[in-house]
Fold these 4 entries.
Entry 1:
Amino acid sequence: MAIVYVWDCKTVDCYPTDGNYTDVVYRVHWIVTGTSDQKDPDDNFYTARNIGVQAISTDDLSNFTPFADLTNSDVVSWTKTAMGSAQVTAIETEIQSTINNEINPSSVTLTVKD
């Protein structure tokens, strides 16, 4: 089974001004969605999502990118760097585990008849 992970880092908190710069990103609201190549009985791909917030350092603005020029790809890169590879892997592993549990549940809830 293959899972494709999509990182959405389009929502950010900014300082209106920081020194000579405006709209300086200091926190990212991220959503990671994993989609399996397998489908459920209703013909939908299995998916799972993880949501969080990551602080971004503003200590060094020497490579500052104006807000109007930012892309999701830029902010995803900053977010993953700030998290570190271990946390990125943990997030994606949790999503994979959730999808695996949807495909092969270890527990189900049933209702007893009267």
Note: The chain has a mean pLDDT of 96.
Entry 2:
Amino acid sequence: MGEATDLQAAARDGVVVVGAGQAGAATILRLRANGFAGPITLIGAEAEPPYQRPPLSKKFLTGEYAKDRLYLRPLAAYAQLDVTLMLGREVCRIDRLNRRVELDDGSTLPFGRLVLATGARPRPLPETLRGTFENIYLFRTFADTQRLQAEMMPGRRILVVGGGYIGLETAAVARQLGLEVVLVEQADRILQRVASDETSSHFRNLHRSEGVRILEANRLLELDGTGGRATRATLSGEGEVLFDFAVVGIGVSVNGELADEAGLEVDGGIVVDSRCRTADPAIFAVGDCTSFPYQSGRTRLESVHNAIAQGELVADAIAGKQVGPYAPVPWFWSDQFSTKLQIAGLNAGYDRVVRRPGGREDSLSVWYFRAEALIAVDAINDARAYMTGKRWLEAGITPNAAAIADPAVDFKAAS
């Protein structure tokens, strides 16, 4: 009875989705595909309709993709779906008692179901470092990329702060556009948080071979400049570096304030159960902002696959379908120069790494094990290794590690 009443409320008062990124878009599109006939409102802080973010640091930054190529749907498609878009608007408060959200202009909007797809934002440098310099860029939105494009001129010098995937992708694009690139990473090696030493070494060698100057174990101590522009960085181990502009890629912060202020649990992300439900039965959370059960703990994923899968799961639940617990095999990718990295699984807590040369000189795969079980694979220019590893992870198969390390042994024989 309670579930039927909840569905009636959702159909009557409608579904409000806060956040117009990939997860929010997946939710509303799946709702309509499921035949949900109630009102749907999608609220986004940016003035743009939902668009793909991964190409921002790659083909959009280089100018290869036009802006409209990144839109998930043409603007007119939302009207055809009878979805109300409220763009360039922000939700300031969730009134859980009365089931409504308050907007930045003081108006309110009722909901039968609320979906938080608020995502995450780039973490800036500490204010003591960044000051008021106008040429220190973060990288998340169309507007960020467009500002950066104006700086990306051949022969100019870019300082990239952070040796994660965003930093490395930015460095690769900058070199391809003819800029001088210095990348600074305060950890002992690039990709230290997310990859093995084997994968880090491959990308370090790749970038250096392309002319990127990589400075690991170097902390940014000070920025100096004149006229509102920083031009000199002082580092802990390398002295001074001169540059024309900088891009910062040092991680993200979850946009969980709205949930937290509404009394919902936020712990490294908006806490949800295995069906993306918060403690409030009328409120779900999906995408980059969520902390969900994964294996024996909890995790938060920043990936297109996760955003779409969680959005669609919630849409199915709202439409009255039976949904099982969300138990993904995560997958990711990164393009740098002519190299494609494909990742399946999560390598957290690995205790053994096996390296397997690929079929060509610039390809290899890195296999992660924990307590003898396969948990992840990094495939570098090796689509077969990626697809095989992903299939094994989905099936719960652990291959023979010694066989994996021997490129003469076929994958079929290794399992």
Note: The longest strand covers residues 373-380.
Entry 3:
Amino acid sequence: MLIRFSSRFRKSYKKLSGNIKNKAQEKEKIFRINPFDACLDTHKLHGKYKSYWAFAIDSQYRIMFIFAESEIVDFIDIGTHEIYK
């Protein structure tokens, strides 16, 4: 699976603490194997983000993404629930 990172994702990722970055890297490894693994809590978003999905890094942080093509995923943003506003 190819994961592309948007400029917004890269900018948000740089601002995260080292602990959250480490957790995000571990969850990304799981995501690459199975995007719908139960530990990720992958879910479809609603409203203005209805074409997007998200998965949990921990109880507060999420990665918002979209399935671009068959084996290509675009990571759109990373952060707390504030990314949905």
Note: The helical segments are 7-14, 18-33.
Entry 4:
Amino acid sequence: MGKLLVVVGLLITGAGLLIISGVPIGRLPGDFTFKRGNATFYFPLATSILASVILTLLLSMLRR
């Protein structure tokens, strides 16, 4: 449980540093935005796939 908390903390810190440095997290080319009138729908498909791949790799390395 302790290792998991450390990894989650490092991931949050890393994401914060990326956002501060100007990396467009959440605005990748595969993310869809639909606007009609006053309504906006945002579907982060590419961001979700990228986060899934990164988390899968990290968790598989921790299990070994």
Note: The first strand starts at residue 32 and ends at 36.
